[in-house]
Amino acid sequence: MVIVDYYARLDGPEPLTGLDLVEPDVGFLLALPGNEVSGSGREELRAYLEGRPAVGRKHTVVRQSADGDLEMVYGYITEGDGRGTGSFTSVALLSADKKLLRYQSFFHAGFNIFPLPAGAAA
């Protein structure tokens, strides 16, 4: 799945290679606690990614589904110290070239469908 590959790249040694999987005119919404980041275009998404603090976070996808050009994932985030900080649900509409055309992600620290990893913050 493209969205799973996107997260793997974001978490890898060269996070900006995730942008290779994004259309130049991508539309996105990232709903974070107390903040929403939205925009259009690969460069706006790049600016967001470059502005994130370097904490060694990791996206772990625990469920995934695809129906034609729509992909959906559910997972949790861990920080560099292994603490789970919350869960996310993300949806992507793919272009004909199998790149992210529309992308939205919702992160919540307090409500999780599945338990966070052992020893993680609830």
Automatic annotation (TrEMBL):
Gene3D superfamilies reported for this sequence: 3.10.450.50
Domain of life: Bacteria
Protein name: Nuclear transport factor 2 family protein
